[in-house]
Specification:
The complex is a heterodimer of chains A (602) and B (232). With 602 residues, chain A is an all-alpha fold. Chain A has helices at residues 29-34, 39-69, 79-115, 123-145, 172-201, 214-245, 269-302, 310-323, 339-351, 353-367, 376-399, 401-407, 411-441, 447-474, 491-524, 582-585, 598-601, and strands at 256-257, 260-261. A two-stranded antiparallel ribbon of chain A has the order 1-2. Helix content of chain B is 72%, strand content 3%. Chain B has helices spanning 2-23, 47-73, 87-110, 114-144, 153-185, 189-218; strands at 82-84, 227-231. The chains are: A mainly alpha (602), B mainly alpha (232).
Amino acid sequence: MSAHVAHDETEFAPPAEVGEMHLYHPKTFLGKYIWSQDAKVIAIQYALTAMGIGLVALVFSWLMRLQLGFPGRVAFIDPDTYLQLVSMHGMIMVIYLLTALFLGGFGNYLIPLMVGARDMVFPYVNMLSYWVYLLAVLLLVASFFAPGGPTGAGWTLYPPQAILDGTPGASWGIVLMLVSLGVFVIGFTMGGLNYVVTVLQARTRGMTMMRLPLTVWGIFMATVLALLAFPALFVSAIMMLLDHSLGTSFFMPALVSKGQQVAHTGGNPLLFQHLFWFFGHPEVYIVALPAFGIVSDLISTHARKNIFGYRMMVWAILIIGGLSFVVWAHHMYVSGMNPYFGFFFATTTLLIAIPTALKVYNWVLTLWKGNIRLTLPMLFAIAFIFTFVNGGLTGLFLGNVVVDLPLSDTMFVVAHFHMVMGIAPVLTVFGAIYHWYPKITGRMLDETMGKIHFWVTFIGTYAIFYPMHYLGFMGIPRRYYAIAGTNFIPDSAHLLNAWISLAAFVVGAAQMVFLYNLARSYFRGRPSGPNPWQATTLEWQTPETPPKHGNFGKELPVVYRWAYDYGVPGLHADYIPQNVPPSEVRAEAWVKKDQMPAEASA
Amino acid sequence: MTIGMIALSLLMAAIVWWLFRQSLNVQPWESESAAPAARVAVTGPPAAKIALGVFLCVASSLFVLFVSAYAMRLGLADWTPLPRPRLLVFNTALLVGASIAMEWTVHAARRFDTLKVRRGLAASGLLTVGFLVGQLVVWKQLVDAGYFVSTSAATAFFYLFTAVHGLHVLGGLVAWARATLHAWRAPDPGRMRLAAELCATYWHFLLVVWVVLYALLVSSHLGLAICSSAPL
């Protein structure tokens, strides 16, 4: 390590927090693209793997919708297969797609570039993190082909049924699932340590915490949450594995299964639920906080206006993160609990609405009188706000004990969480890909295909999930293979189910347009130039596009301002990049003639 | 889960305090807001130290959740304690010894006394391996006496606690092996000192965790203990 001193203007730049780092320089193709230690390559590896397994989960959702919309028409979907599809769809989407994509994908790509670092602080551990994640994915995929197939216990894997005979995949499937989760947590911890320490330690000269783009804040806090919450998943996975394989009774009560008394004694299934949701609820915000951060940056950049209430936004991220640890039992109202606990958890749950609403107001106020450019990233960002508010409002219903009890385990819950943590974050993912694809590849994505993708996805997901709320109000249960022959369910509900399925197929097809666009634009897209959106943050100021190994050429950038200098009054240019010194801004080229300060015109 | 909630609340309070310091009196929208002190380049603590700190938070979260699970599970009907293995006292003493040896190594490394660093690392390594062997002997004794992992919830927690702690010790030994190899081959004062400090911090952490777990294993004052007062 040698101390790195960047050029002049030190009076405007806070101290250098970090010395120059020595980079690993790969010599072979394998070293550069496969066993790569460059965070950007690791990011793309993470993203492609996550999207690959996400596609599998998307296909699973089509199969589920085939069964629900047209029961009995597809021969190979029997009740066991259906439950396996439900379980794998949920587990893959929440953990192996969204968590991995936001933190492993966007985290790896954006953190070093946005904080002005050459790479993550521990590149080797970062590389390991990806390979361990890949191992977790492979273990999960292996369970598809294991005897008995993958687990069908639902993504929550509640014992005792998860490991009892009769539940699909109760022999091999659940073991591979639990091991895969454990491996995922280990891999994530390696990556997470990197993200946190890079943000804390590797920021370039002048990049104070309060000058970080909100994307970095979102990913940073989500990583902190994940580092603290994933151990709960790890603990519950290990204990359930022991219950399954060594016959302990942590979670397994004494019970009779298929006429046989099981060997377990006196375990507590509620204990599992507590541990699981102690992870499971923060998990919602592990996915949501990066989305919040990214949306803030998309909106500010494409509305050419500084983010409204930056410090408030940072504090809201922190408060949401903190509160997310004290609400977990709202997932367990129907499991039975002391009414005072119910009151406590309902109150904390509703409290989260305050910082969340604050963020929504700030996004809307950023748009207010902005110079809104309806680019593809902006469309997705606005769609996110709509969808998140919709999903959030039904969350207020479910957060109340008395409303939750009748709605629990109905399609209403499915509609709620798909809106709030399925569609909303995925819209952000799309917006972010349309926004950063030019930096990653040097080419723009095709606008027409993007518009088709956007409108079909946005309207289509509402066509899927809006009617689902009504199905929930009717009392149609979730996780059921078929609902035929039940008196309280009218024929119109079946018709609605068929309609939802059709909408789901159309939305799925639109994703193929997106994938085609990704592939085609890589070769034939319009060259983007270094900064197509005229953005201020450091990743757009790299000497090369796509950025080379080491990100910033010979010298690291020096940061003089926050990430939101858009539409600064009195300037010709409507944005000032973070690395432009104030003395340069005072020069003639930047300032409008009638507003030139005295010393500059002199 | 109350235990988990309290621990995490304390951690969140620390983060809030940290952010408060970061954001107090800061106007992020002003480009010229840097303080005059900014002219002096300051380098913070090494990244490895921060990383270890973060990792210890993760490990604490893991152990706190295991203890939470224990606290929730122990009230239930099938809780039959196992006899208290006497060897645990000796093992604890070994781990305390290893921790002291690590601290001694740090002092030697700060003075760049390579010989003492090597001795210190060897001593702490030996004591730590002794601890792990001791724990395995305890397991053997329990198995011989008919207490398997599935015998009762108490034995399950006994094996679980000792195994998870043992695995963390084993992970520490990997770092210790790298530090020792370095101290023997081509000792560089800065690196040796950092390695010794990191190892020492980790060893002290594991000792504290073990003392807490040990208290839960043997102290019936804290409620239903995992081990009864009958010695093995």
